[in-house]
Every structure is written in C-alpha cells, then in structure tokens.
Amino acid sequence: MSFTGFGEVAERLRRSTVQVASGRRGLGSGIVVKSDGFIATNAHVVGPVVAPGVDNPGLSVQLPDGSSFPGRLEARNTRRDLALLRIPALNLTPATLGDSDDLRVGELVMAVGNPLGFMGAVTTGIVHAIGRRPGLGPTKWIQAEVQLAPGNSGGPLADARGNVVGMNTMVAEGLGLAVPSNAVARLLAGELQQASLGVVVRGVPVRTRGAERLGLAVLDVATGGAAEFASLRAGDILVGIEGRDLRSLDDLEGALEGNQERVLRVQFVRGDPNKIRSVAIRLHCPEVAVA
Question: Which residues are designated catalytic?
Fold first, then answer.
C-alpha cells in the first residue's frame, strides 16, 4: 500500500473513532457502528456500575468534530469486554466491520484511538498470534505489535484495507490485545446479550462453615440495577449461584449471559461469614439488535 493510500485509510478510520468518557473511570475510545448513533466500545471503558437502559449522567461520547453527546448503555457483555452505546446523533460515519476469521498472523494492522486524551492517534504493527491467552479465560484475542496506551481501549484495530477486525482492549507482555470483530458483530446482532447484575466485585478468600472458598466482594452497587432492587449492598460477599459454589468471576459472568428475563438465585454472606443467605434477583437483558 502506498503512503497516500495508507493515509486515506487512517483518515477514514479516524472519522469513525470517538472518545468515550465515563466520569471517574476516565477516557477511552469507541467505534461508530451505525450512522444513527450506535457506538461499540469496551465494557470496562463504560464501567461496571452502569446499568443498561438507565440514564447515566457521567457517560458521554465526543465525536471527531469536537461535538459531545450523552451516552446510553444499550447492551453489554463483560465476559467478552464489549458494550454497545447509543447517542442522540445522526449521519455519523460508521466503520466497516471485517471478518476477523479471515485475519492471518503476519498481516499489517493499524490501531486508532485516543491514548492519554490525544484524539485520533494512529499506530501500526504486525499480528503476532490469534487465540487464547493464559489467565484471560476462554476469550480469543488478536495479539498484535501495536503501541497502545490508556485511552486506546475500545478503539478499532483494522486491516490494511481499513476493515475493522478487532477492538483494542489491553496490553499484555508488550502486545496489544483486541477482541475479534466477529464478537462485536454478534453483540450487535443480539447474540451475546448479557443481563446486568449492577455490581462491582472483587475476588476475595472467605471462610464459611469451616471451609475456605472464593467470594466476590461487592464494592459498589448501581443505582436502578438488579442488585439494588434485590437489596444487595456494598460489603456483601457473593459465594454461590443457584446453590453452586463460585470458582471464578467467569462463573458469575456466564450465569448472566442470555436474552430472556429470568430469576437468578445468588448466595452471599453479610457480616457473619457462617450465615449464608440467598436472594432471588430478577434479571432483564434488553433485546437490542442493530440491523
């Protein structure tokens, strides 16, 4: 590709890359996926205490022309670190989602985002690997030698033709990791909908009834979320789901996947670690599919 052609591809991607602000969590990036205001980004950019379908004053999206709009969370899948926002804006320039299954090791890719608040920065590199990473669960990652910094999360990773093949998410051992674009497409199609419990949790060891086990300590509860309506509160420690002990955070996230309204029974401790309580939490996963 000539330098002129590369510049044109990069400029086109910059017009489809936005900045996402989520209050205390700082700044990240997002990808315009539909001209009438749909933005794809990372779930961790939005923040875990934001509930789908609820107005979130701290959530906003800035377009490349400098205009800013309030954002509303439409769908999220924390297991794959994906979120879908919508802003009240029309005539946006959507990116073209490519087929990430066609991407090969050794291909040239470019990442666009807003590292450290610098809008529309572009970096290039080579795909090193595609697949799982130890310690990062069952998710497949595109692993590329691109320079990412805080603020790049949620931005596009594109092939040499400008087709978005991934969403930049994190850095591990010097390589940028991106969620494959086919996972983004599945979220847009409504196939990866995940109900929101509306909590921030952290894994902690807890001893209950004489046995050491994993607990998920509740650090924060979203206003208007399912956990708040079920009277869960910060300081509670989740220890089980449907009567089964928690083995990892992935157990909780997996239980939240689905697209049907249902009740999830969660076991937790509050105060006395030897007293295990149970609460039935009504979950609702909004039906969102972007045609």
Answer: 44, 81, 153
Residues of the chain with pLDDT > 70, as a percent, come to: 90
Q: What is the pLDDT of residues 78-93, one digit of tens each?
A: 888 999 999 999 999 9
Phi and psi at residue 216, to the nearest 5°: -115, 105
19/76 same-domain check: yes
CATH number of domain containing 53: 2.40.10.10
Domain of 142, in residue numbers = 100-188
Do 82 and 28 lie in one domain? The reply is yes
* 69 pLDDT more than 80: yes
Single out the residue in 188, 221, 236 at which a domain terminates: 188
- How confident is the model at residue 249, as a pLDDT? 78
Same domain assignment for residues 181 and 219: no
Q: Quick check: 288 pLDDT over 60? A: no
pLDDT score of 207: 87
Note whether 76 and 135 are same-domain residues.
Answer: no
Amino acid present at 112: V
| Total structural domains within the chain | 3
- Strands, DSSP E only, in the chain? 17-22, 27-34, 38-41, 59-62, 68-70, 72-77, 82-86, 108-113, 121-131, 141-144, 156-159, 164-172, 175-180, 199-208, 211-221, 237-241, 244-245, 262-269, 276-283
Of 128 and 47, the structure prediction assigns the larger pLDDT to 128
17/65 same-domain check: yes
- Mean pLDDT over the full length of the chain: 88
- The pair of structure tokens assigned to 42 is 């990372």
Q: What is the dihedral of CA 42, 45, 50, 51, to 10 degrees?
A: -10
